[in-house]
Amino acid sequence: MSKAFIVDVAKCNGCYSCQMACKDEHAGNDWRPIAAAQPDIGQFWFKLKDETVGTVPRVRVNYTPTLCNHCERPACKDACRSEAIYAREDGLVIIDPEKCKGCGSCARACVYEAIYFNEALKISQKCTGCAHLLDNGYDLPRCVEMCPTGCLAFGEEKTLESDILGASRLKADEGFKPRVWYRNLPGQFIGGTVYDPETEDVVIGARVRAVTGGKHIETTTDEYGDFWLKDLAVGKYDVFIEPKGYNQKAFYGLWTKTCINLGDIPVGKFLGDAG
Amino acid sequence: MVQKIDARADRTVLKGASLMGPQSGPPTAVDSGKDGKITRIRPFYYDKDFEWEDLNPWKIEAKGSTFEPPNHTLPGTYFLSYKKRVYSENRVRYPLKRVDWDPKGERNTQNRGKSKYKRISWEEASRLIADELLRVKAKYGMSAVLAEADMHGEGKHIAPCHGCMNKLLSMLGGYTVQMRNMDSWEGYSWGAKNVWGGEPVGQMQPSGNIWPDIAKNAEQLLLWGADPETTPVGFDGYMASRLSQWIHNLGHKYVYVDPALNWSGAYLADKWIPVMPNTDAALLLAIIYVWLEEGLWDSEYVETHAVGYEAFFEYVRGNAEDGTPKTPRWASEKCGVPPWTIKALARQWHGKVTSFTIGNGGPGIRGPFATEPARLQAIAMGMQGLGKPGRHHAKWLEWNIHSPIYPMPHQGSEHFEIPHRCEILRPVGSDVDLYTGNMPKVAYENEELMDVLRPHPNKTLQAIPKCLLHDAILDGKTDWWGLHSFVGPAEEQWVHYEYPNKGCSNIHMIWTDSPCMVTCWNDGFRIAKAFRDPSIECIVAQQPWLENDCLLADIILPVQTKFELEDICEDTNGGIVCSVYHEYPACPPVGESLDDFDCVAEVARALGPEYYNEYTKGEKDRSRIIELFYEGSVAHLDTNDDFHNKGIYPIPCNPDKQDFKKYPPGLSPFWRDPENNPLSTPTGKLEFTSSKIAELFPGDRERPPYPQWVEKSDLHDERAHGARAKDYPLLCVSNHGRWRFHANLDDITWHREVDTMKMRGADGYQYEAAWINPRTAASRAIAHGDLIKIYNERGTVLCAAYLTERLAEGIVYVDHGARYDPIDPETLDRGGAINLITPAAITSKNVTGMVVSGFLVEAAKVADTEYEGWKKQYPDAFARKVDEGCGLCLAGWSEA
Description:
Largest sheet of chain B: 8 strands, mixed
Strand content of chain B: 15-25%
Largest interface: A-B, 54 and 62 residues
Largest sheet of chain A: 4 strands, mixed
Oligomer: heterodimer
Strand content of chain A: 35-45%
CATH topology of the domain at 187-410 and 674-696 in chain B: Dimethylsulfoxide Reductase, domain 2
Radius of gyration of chain B: 26 Å
Structural class of chain B: alpha/beta
Radius of gyration of chain A: 24 Å
Strand order of the largest sheet of chain B: 7-6-21-20-19-8-9-16
Distance between the termini of chain A: 71 Å
Number of domains of chain A: 2
CATH topology of the largest domain in chain A: Alpha-Beta Plaits
Shape of chain A: elongated
CATH architecture of the domain at 187-410 and 674-696 in chain B: 3-Layer(aba) Sandwich
Structural class of chain A: mainly beta
Number of strands of chain A: 17
Distance between the termini of chain B: 49 Å
CATH architecture of the largest domain in chain A: 2-Layer Sandwich
Shape of chain B: globular
């Protein structure tokens, strides 16, 4: 019976259509009793977050589309002092704009920072899953409808089972049972380019190993001499560059709290033990 | 029991979602409520009124995967927020007159860009303009009136956003036409055209069916200054994005060569090669050097398909006059790419079937000497067998223009275009009207339609290229090569012109419906100086919004946006299904605004009934014009009368056009048989050395007979190692806006909340985000969000520092098109309009193009004392009301 959102970040092109469609639907449009109008600026019921990781030229941009998680056990509802927050039969969690007294407890309780305060109306506001549209024969909330790449999906939890399988949720361990499922959330990376400084050529097919706690992750350099050790957990890594016919190179104790660009790495020709 | 709400629309109308201008774009469905206000903007769903299969939707099959269009349009993000544009605080709501402009007394031209406006009546505004036209005509002749009317903006046909005034000016005796330079295509038009023809704009043509061929046969795509997530969006929406996603999923390697990790690269890059701005020529020369040294090129193809290659190869090898081999090491010092990466790129370009893709070329073909990198692209593709399967020069947008067969298989049964009720860009002494060129034969037989569209018999009197307008006004004369028309054959490059034309006056009055020179063209501060010159006695602007050159005008006419209009529109560029549809007003007119056609009609009325009747053709009924345009475009195809019955006629796709045997991809006929399928160059071959340049400009050091690395010239010294770099060490790169469409959309409050566009300063003002690498910033003690000034000899533009690893070091990157918000009109801007400080000089001596990227600046943190000093020096500028959400606004520039 409950609705869920799927967010496949591998398909996010960072276009912000989700964020703008939400504004188009809610800023200045009053959909009471589901939601009062959102102020023109300052609130983001749907917010696309972006984070740039790595350094030039080994850079990735991680997009995370975020919205109210419509939790099965909503902390906001428990925190509300005026019984203004309720879950609909379809699982969408709504702040009743008429009952809300604007105490702000819900916003403080929400770990997703999804609740905003309307200064003019003195009420708390957030994503409604466009319940006012769903009740009027529309199939999708505006954010999902406008996603041009298939990054966002919405529907009955049951029909989305195959997408939910293997997906993760943000702050899932806090026990609120959120209903926004993320696919392909990236881990950290360690990257670099291996080259021979003597001939000024990239080294292709060089073995690159990362070792952490006895676990080995391995890749080889591609046609551009590049390697990307991707989707690493945060931790300490020793990285070994082992190109055939060249001296090895090692980087010890790399801490992947951030993504790491090892830069262009020169490797000398292996001249035998005497060399 | 919860009360029931009705979220459905009171009414839904179709509106084109494109700012291309001449073309109106894919339809969106716009809802409005009982109060007449726009509620929301959604895609148009083809299967609502039609059987999807009846539309013959196209598909591409490649490498075991199928790519199909969705059953709805894919409007760009911009159009989801377009109601903010309609209701903007920046809207011109009624006719305005500059408070201290008195046509009978002091005109105070020195106060343009400073003094405010007051509301006047339509009657007064049209009377003032009519009187000025008659006065100027009597005193100087009609050649003293410059009409600035061209290009992008809302796609409108009944009342086009550009060119309505031209007809009235023709009726008065003619005018000076501001001829657009080849701004989208400078390097290709002036350079590559001399390698491969590629008329009308110098990019690879024909380009039919190349995208299916690339999907099937290519292995690697170079995205060279190309961003499918940005450039196509304002034209066509997100079909290019979906195409890029699909081809990437097929396993094609995506290599981005760009100073920045652009928006597409942030999404799909397998490899990002940061190149210093405007050094692409060096990089390309080194790649060609590697090919020659290692034998990695298609010598058989070159021998049979190219001419003049020996001399060029000798130059690359270092055997020409300069004696410098163009080695990867040599190039690396200029372009910043390590030699090993240059070699790897060269080898992979040869080793993998590679297509070269562009988003019209970007800043890479709009810098100093832009002809050279553009020519080198064409030559490089030639050396790798241009036209062979999967080896094309392809564009991520404009799939509906310049090629009789579309590059993407979305064509209806024939090429068509809805005409425009205006005259636009008429070359001097000619009737050629660019925007009625694609009408079917039946249109020309429709006398009633022709009567509406026929240009006035009075010809245009003289021309000024847009990129030389400053010189024309401030020096009183200028001369140039080419640009007889905006898009034309290569031969136009070899004709020389002068201003003033024989028997013509200098200009003394300007009427603009495209008031964006300061923020879109070269050396905007000098444009401001020209517009403030006492010789320009009157400036009239007509525009929906108070932006850019409007702030330098004396009279401003309020124009309706297309959301307030009834019109007939066409979608030939959305990439899904072509269609023709009827637009109805989505809301009542804002304020006293009129559409562009009627703005001019009011002036005609003030001139007298003979002008009014001729201009309006006796006030021909709007619905009759729509009917005529329908009859002159697709009526003969619309056998079910869908246009009238359903408001939209989607033209079923033609699968036949995808047959590679009948319609071979791109230049493959030239590859197979160059003798019988020659290029349009003088020799019919790829001219590595241009026969025409060798003949006409043999001594040109900036555009020599074969392409070269040009370090600097008398016109330009914009290199990171040159003399000027001591004072201005950063190279500025300026792209098409991610959050704007050229000068459009800067006022959308919801866009301005995204910090890659604007960042709110300590003073509350939303400054334009200037991207800068953290290490480049650190060496200047600039922190993220700091108010910075970007400056050179031409002036200072204020921005906010956006520190990012998405940009290489030594560069500052500011999207073009932010609104001019002058603190001092000729030296200091708060709005972030970076084109204000772009170079004045044209591309090169014999190339009449603009230079708007790849130029030197310095960036520095604005000290509090300096800021306070400005506030004291320019109290009026700082006292202007600025809207919290949209920034510059009508209230800040009009008297209460």
